[in-house]
Amino acid sequence: MAENTALWRRGGGWLLESPQEIYCPEDFDDTIKTLAEITRTFVERDVLPVLDRMDQGELELNVPLIQKLGELGPLGAEIPEEYGGLDLPKVVGAVITEEMAPTGGFAVTYGAHTGIGTLPLVYWGTEEQKKKYLPKLASGEWIAAYALSEPGSGSDALGARTRATLSADGRHYLLNGTKQFISNSGFANLFTVFAKVDGEHFTAFLVERDFPGVSLGPEEKKMGIKASSTRQLILENAQVPVENVLGEIGKGHRIAFNILNFGRYKLGAGGVGAAKHALALSATYAKERRQFGRPIASFGAIQQKLAEMATRTYVTESAVYRTVGLIDEAIAGKTGTDAILAGIQEYAVECSILKVLGTETMDYAVDEGVQIHGGYGFLQDFPIERAYRDSRVQRIFEGTNEINRLLIPEMLFRRALKGELPLMEAAGRLQEELLEPDFDDPEGPWAREEAQVANLKKLALMIAGLAVQKFGTAIEEEQEVLLTIGDLLIDTYAAESGVARARKTGLPLWGDMARLYLDAMLGKALLAATGVLPRVAEGDDLSMYLSVARRLTRREPFDRIGVQREVAAAVLAAGGYPQPAASRAG
């Protein structure tokens, strides 16, 4: 791929310019496919057979499993080769995360170790720190954890109260405070801990489990992800050598906030894997379960659920790999932390989109999976019950979905004010365009769908422009409006990703699901616009903008039921998420 010069290649640029191409799973090379297969085999042979035991409290089983992943390779996918890793593109980490998702709590162990636990050291560690710790983390000899949250600070990460004070001899920082909800804490050897030096300068530290003054609370009794360890990390004059400061004093926010982007797109990938797992469980059960003399898979009500689960999974998968492909393109050939992080930060908006989209697709799939199983879905004997419980926390991880919904428009506004995206100019041109009596009826393959996606973008821009015009800087207090704009942007990005992938591959099944999702989002967008426009406009202006919203969300009737039945048939034939082998692409 070329350099990120075109507007559509830049973060948020898709709102103003349609993509000419996207990266998608059909582009996976042999390395990606091999590591995916290695991970899938590991999950099936090593993790799933002991997952019940781990769920029931045998958390020590996490340790040999992590060590085996170190032997197999996936553990070091994003660690540089000189420190024992494979130094592979980000798409590989996303694919491994997707394949790991069916393991629930163990997937959290893996993700906390390889992502937020290890990557701060990869990007901000000194040469000495990397040589000391990364080989152990790549092999699984040591397990990593990340300690940011505190009992009194959740979404307000910078409100942390943990303090760090330099010792009298200047050799150690003494850390005092309590960290909450720390994944891997029961068996982690190395923690990335955030504290305020002298109560003021937010800073990251590398804290070993055996340092004096480090202790743990008991295991939290969780609703789900029971196979993972979650405890408090208690610091009482914990002695941390000065050479274990990670990054710069007072610059801990750069680590904390940048690392969230990695976590967010990986939560999107994990959501895809968990949704596929729920779909496979549901399709298998639906074919086996008989009611009224026939399999419940033969009933339209069940087929509709399976089709919707597959459709949402398809567009989410398309959005995830579209984004990670752009990230890999942006950082290819780059050296140095600042250059690499700039490439990832470029797509912070998209990472937040993926976090919300992926976790809510997963939630939808496991919820419908339980419904398809009926009463049996409520029993622990059936894996869908654990999948349902394990999914819920994902909407809280890495910033709640509400926080991410608010961040999406806020980050776009900031990019516009900095001159990084010409959103204001586009909004100005849009005002004139919206006064035109009607829009042209496009012709050609995918032309109508692409025009409908473009109209969704116009609707989001229109509402955002009206909101900024009315509220100015006070728009931060209009969270309900921002949430609506965020939803429009999430749905539009997902719909466009599905359409672009279907157009690229020429796969009829992908085309069916892309159209199903887009049609549903047009209806959803009209409902959202009708609800929010009275907040940003009134009188004759309101009537005009409501009329424009109806035009921008105009839908062409088609046999949704018939198309959903075709998608369901493909799901049932595959026993889960379908994988079309043929392409009509030229």
Number of helices: 19
Helix content: 55-70%
* Element-by-element helix/strand order: HHHHHHHEEEEEEEEHEEHHHHHHHHHHH
Query: Mean pLDDT across all residues, rounded?
Result: 94
Helix/strand structural class: alpha+beta
Name of the CATH architecture of the largest domain: Up-down Bundle
CATH topology of the largest domain: Butyryl-CoA Dehydrogenase, subunit A, domain 3
Termini separation (Å)? 19 Å
| Beta strand % | 5-15%
CATH class of the largest domain: Mainly Alpha
Dominant shape: globular
- Uncertain parts: 582-586
Question: What is the secondary structure topology, with strand pairs?
Answer:
Elements: H1 30-47, H2 51-55, H3 62-72, H4 90-100, H5 105-117, H6 119-124, H7 127-139, E1 144-147, E2 163-166, E3 172-183, E4 190-197, E5 201-208, E6 214-216, E7 230-241, E8 245-246, H8 252-288, E9 290-291, E10 294-295, H9 300-331, H10 337-345, H11 348-373, H12 383-391, H13 401-417, H14 423-433, H15 447-471, H16 479-505, H17 508-536, H18 539-552, H19 560-574
Parallel strand pairs: 1-4, 2-4
Antiparallel strand pairs: 2-3, 3-7, 4-5, 5-8, 6-7, 9-10
Helix pairs in contact: 1-4, 4-8, 5-8, 8-9, 8-11, 8-12, 9-10, 9-11, 9-16, 9-17, 9-19, 11-12, 11-13, 11-16, 13-16, 14-15, 15-16, 15-17, 16-17, 17-18, 17-19
